[in-house]
Amino acid sequence: MGKNKTKVIPPSLYIHIPFCLKKCAYCDFHSIPFDGPLASRYVCALSVEAQRRAGEMGVLGTAGTAAMETAYIGGGTPNSLGIKELETLMGAVHRNFSLRPGGEFTVEVNPVFGNPDKLKLLFDAGVNRLSIGAQSFSERELEFMGRPHGEAEIERTFFDARQAGFQNISLDLIYAIPGQGMESWQHNVEKALSLQPEHLSLYELTPEEGTPLYSLLERGHAVMPGEEDVLAMQQRAEEMLLKAGYARYEVSSYSLPAMEAAHNLNYWARGEYLGLGAAAHSFKNSIRWSNVTDPQAYVQALDEGRLPVERSEPVSPDEAAREFVLLGLRTTRGLDMEDAEGYKLDLGKHAQPFVEGGLLEISGGRLRPTGKGFALLNRVTAELIEAIGL
Fold first, then answer.
1. Reading across the β-sheet that carries 335-336, which strands appear in turn?
2. In contact, 147 and 136? CB cutoff 8 Å
3. Which of 32, 104, 220, 254 is the most exposed, having the fewest neighbouring CB atoms within 10 Å of its CB?
4. pLDDT below 70 — which residues of the chain?
5. What gap in Å lies between CA 154 and CA 132, rounded to an integer?
6. Rounded CA gap, 383 and 74, in Å?
């Protein structure tokens, strides 16, 4: 499949913690309100699944553990777990998996649970990167989105993380919030930059069916910003981040030099990964499988000696080609034209109208979005995939 397809991309490990203090107004992820007894049982079940799955990635690390390039614990809210549960979880990770020296190990953190003792525990357990879900520094916007924290908690968690030893911290921000103007968005970016994180992820608020936000919009109780306003927010944020020394490497992600999120880059490159926990997905040898979404059902399956797989299916050649285009165009590296031949894609032919329109560019044997293309990426990728016939 082209010159790069012979290169083995090391696998990644993802662990899903489904518990939150409460569900945010925009969230359609698999999460439930925190339940202490269930959380304890859940972490024990995770330990069992970790032991059973560790040998399936095919590459052994130290002491018979499964070697992983990166690890990521997300949710939900991983730091909603208590000290005891976090210790159990970290123990299960290290008994069954090993990261290469310097490998990236990320945990998502909600400021409302930004306990200094938990942060220190994570750092001492080998976690070397935090992703803090700030989302906004506006109390009004945080309240509208149903976030259970305020600006003060964001700053306290950030400084406590630095005190614990973390030198790689990412902040998440959300824009295009109903009622949010350019002044407020610029303030949010300025506040984030003032903390000097190594990485920033900027996500456009997207109404998902079944969420409270979607219901508000349907009833006319809120109005999303217009497309021109959204594009202006994107452009202004990029100007500010570039001036501050951050570079865009993915449609939603900016980092200081050499501080890109290696775990996410593995996803965009269609690398293999093992997912543990309720609703977690895995991908290996062109097979994708997913676990049951209900945490109770997940725990029950493992208690009964069963793996909690809900669905498993091969990835067809057409689906693989589609993913190659969709995921690769999210990054500034774009798509390798020679790799595309392995997917039986004539990218040069199908991309030409987009190149002529200033949305895509071809340079150094790679097809990548332009600045204009990134701003309209969903439309560009949808139309390119339609033109290819995938």
1. 335-336, 366-369, 360-363
2. yes
3. 220
4. 1-10, 57-59, 61-62
5. 8
6. 32
What is the model's pTM? 0.93
pLDDT in tens, 19-30: 987 777 777 777
- Of 307, 287, 289, the closest CA to residue 298 belongs to 307
Residue 36: phi and psi, rounded to 5, are -55, -55
For 314-345, the pLDDT digits (tens) are: 999 999 999 999 999 999 999 999 999 999 99
Q: In whole angstroms, how far apart are CA 302 and each of 73, 76, 93, 225?
A: 20, 21, 17, 45
Helices 83-96 and 116-124: angle between axes, nearest 10 degrees:
10
> What whole-number distance in Å separates Cα of residue 143 and Cα of residue 161?
24
> Residue 214 corresponds to which tokens in the numbers above?
């979607």
Tell me the C-alpha distance between 43 and 41, whole Å.
6
What is the rounded distance in angstroms from the CA atom of residue 297 to the CA atom of residue 308?
8
User: Which residues 6+ apart lie within 8 Å of 125 measured at CB?
Assistant: 86, 87, 90, 93, 94
Query: Strand (E) positions, the chain?
Result: 12-17, 19-20, 32-33, 66-75, 97-109, 129-135, 169-175, 199-204, 247-250, 253-255, 273-276, 281-284, 287-291, 309-314, 335-336, 360-363, 366-369
Show the tokens assigned to 163: 């005190």
Residue written as tokens 């959204």?
230
Task: For residues 277 and 128, give the distance between their C-alpha atoms in angstroms, rounded to a whole number.
Answer: 21
Helix-, strand-, coil-residue percentages of the chain, each rounded to 5: 45, 25, 30
* Length of the chain measured in residues: 390
Domains of the chain: 3-268 (3.20.20.70), 317-388 (1.10.10.920)
Three-state DSSP at 206 gives coil
Assign residue 207 a region: left if phi > 0, alpha if psi is -120 to 50, beta otherwise? beta
Number of Cβ within a 10 Å radius of residue 227: 11
What is the dihedral sign for C-alpha 74, 75, 80, 82?
negative
Query: Comparing C-alpha atoms, which of 289, 291, 264, 288 is closest to residue 280?
Result: 291
Residues ≥6 apart with Cβ < 8 Å to 319: none
